[in-house]
Amino acid sequence: MLLEREAELARVAEALRAAAAGDSSLVLLTGPLGTGRTALLHQLPMLAEGEKIRVLRANAAPMEQDFDVGVVRQLFDSLLTGAPEDLRGQRIEAEVDLCRTVFSDDAPPLDENGAVTIPEEALYGLRSVLATAGAERPLLILVDDLQWVDTPSLRWLAFLVKRLHGLRAVLVCSLRDGYRRPGDPLLREIVEAARLVLRPAPLSLGATKEVILEQFGVPGDEEFARACHESSAGNPLFLKSVLADLAMRGHRPTAEHAETARSLRPAQLRERLASSLRAQPRPPRDLAAAIAVLGDQAEPELLGRLAGLDPIGFLAALRDLHQLGLVAAEQEPRFLHRVVRDAVESSMTVAERERLHDAAAALMYHNGRPAERVAAQLLAVTSSDHPWAVEVLRAAADTALRRGAPRTAARYLRRALLDGSLTGEGRARLLIDLATAERGFDPAACERHISQAIPLLTTARLRAAAALRISPTIVGLGPPSVIDLLHQVAEDLGPAASLEGTARDVALRLEARLRHAGHEDPAELAAAVERLSVLGAEPPLLTSAERELTAVLLNAAVLTARWPAAEVSRLANRILEHEPATSDQVHTPLPLVVIGLVAADSVRGISSWLAMEQQTRRQGGTVVDALVNVQQAMVLGARGRVAQAREYAERAVRLAEVHWQEAGVVSTLALTRVALDLQDSALIERILDGPGRRRSSSLALTAALQFVKAAQDAEQGRWSSALETLLACGRQLEASGWRNPVLFSWRPWAADLHRRVGDPHAAGALAEEELLRATEWGAPVALGRALRVKARLSDGDQGMRLLRESVDVLRASANELELARTLLLLGKRLRPGGGEAAAVLREAAALASACGVPRLVERIRAADGSGAAAAPPEATLTRTERTVTSLVGRGLTNQEVAAELGVSSRAIEKHLTSSYRKLGVSGRRELIELLPRMHS
What we know:
The chain contains 48 helices and 7 strands. By secondary structure, the protein is mainly α. Helix 6 (151-161) packs parallel to helix 7, helix 21 packs antiparallel against helix 22 (443-453) and helix 37 runs antiparallel to helix 38. This is AAA family ATPase.
């Protein structure tokens, strides 16, 4: 509290020297709550140490305001107590005794109103005592918290400050800003008589760092110190309260706790501020309440009207709040710290808060403020009689949905449902709106509210359209209750062939949902493929309903591999041409198109769908965002860009942790693909221990987890166990009609395991079967992989011919990782040390590095005994990227590297991100670990 107070101490010391020479004065210490006035006042006696100065002290307190002449008694008691022995019995003691008699509790002098008064002779008598004491040595008279001094003592102080001349005394009084005593001129007289007014300034950043060091015993990080300084605005009390609370919670003064320091609201500080506020007159209290209700950004006009103040009264109340240290500036209605709002709210009753919020909602509505601002006020009210409240809440929810905040929209709509006047279709529409908001983060609540709305709707079309608001399950079986509901409304509506217009579209979308619900049933899949054939080579795609149905039917053709990949790719791209990329697509079966293009090895042309991720990221934390990240991971995985795919898959899994269901299933599917490509044992173990293994009945996820389990067994040398798991998985997939060689490539792996356990005949049979399936499907990635598997089982010229054919096929594939794997095998088969082998392995290393698969890079480098055949990891980096990574390796930060190269920090971040991906590392730490090997 005494940091950076040297100037104030020096001014008081100067006043004491002047008093010793006969020039007495009054010094006033002012400032808002928490600036350390009392601490500074208590430090002043240190100025008297070693000097011939006598100190008189008195501390006023709110609880002692009725203790008449209490402050005067404290001062003269301290004078008598501090008098040396040789002065006792002389005039000082006698006159003090006389004054005590005058102020005796037994017979106190009273004025005509019954208040204690001080006789004229006593006033002069007390001054005479001070004059006697001051003649012997200068006096330092300290009165803390002048605003709490009892009235009789205040009268004597007002008398004294006009008669300081000749006393050789300095009277120092502390007075908190914002405290006045209406109708009592005594305090004003004392304040106006001050020769010197000292107002301690807020602490600097340097002083804040010293306080942090004192509190924790270690220096604080720069970011932490700045956070503490900014949040406390340099107020010592606020700063000490925050630091003490942080220490109590066990936090250290590190950068990671900077945000905590900014948001902390110490309870003790809140109570102290609330107590201070309760002692204020009505206008500043009402204005503080208005600011707490309307927020710091509210217009002064609205604040004044809510507080019941005219413009002049508003400015006066705002000035009082500033003097109290509760607002940041005298002309700015913004609280100094978040804890001030808490203190204001705690000083109000529940009824007062509700009344103010309701009044604020009406005030803002009638003044044309945005719906969301009005709705925010209505959320704080249990019930409201405003006839416009429901429509405002619906409008606010619509705005929140458009800006990507479904949780906020749901809060508005739940509040609107509390309105008891809503019945019938009006209530149904509100329930449907709420379900639409909830489907992005709470599918179970969405289903529940749709089920409540449907009985309130009067037509079959409306009921069917409401059911379609429930998001479909892209992977796995949907809840039986939802499927039953869809069957019910579809039967009620009738077949699409008998309908027209909007009703026909609704019927087609219902058909799409119900057909997709049977995608794990081979008979249903066969029927869906037949339905697609009936639509012809050019099915109608003009409406979104037609596109949804076609996407579902096409997915059946993909799973069963009943259509060739080229036809699937053509039709999938036609759907994309007609369908703009929006975030709403994740609530339809349209994402199945991405799965089809991945299976067809045709992902180069779906950039518009990738752009959807950027459009929906602002909805962070929802199922929508998780599914969009899964799509990104799937497309990147199909290109072999495993390191990038992992980033999106990991993000999707994190987003899905709160809301399992659909997002959790597809996120885990994406991550299993990454784990298998990376052969990352730690990631594999994490997936097997995750919630998906226990909760999902999805065939796709079950198969993926079996793949992962087989990978774990194979990594640990349990080849027979791995083979058994894979074969069981294959039988299950075949029984369900899932035959696609890209999506379910279990045969190549099982063939290799057969070879390892010494059963070449079974390995060859699986390889032949896979090649046949891949040829029928026609996707380059499947065919190239099948050729590589067969080549591995073949020796001599036949094996070389198959490998070269695999390379040629995979050069037409989007999957660079599969090409790198085939090139590695080809490089091993070629003459060691030859020019062709070296070139093949260099290309393989560059592709593996670009894909971000370090384990494969190491295998390629080891393919030649000298290690010279394969390109080093840095060979894939540009010259600028090599320079940036080298500077990072020397320990420079991004900003320092940018300054060194004369570019922006953003440019350095882009080069580093590209380098991470090419080298297959996750960040700066792994990069620094890799650098010695890169340059060895």
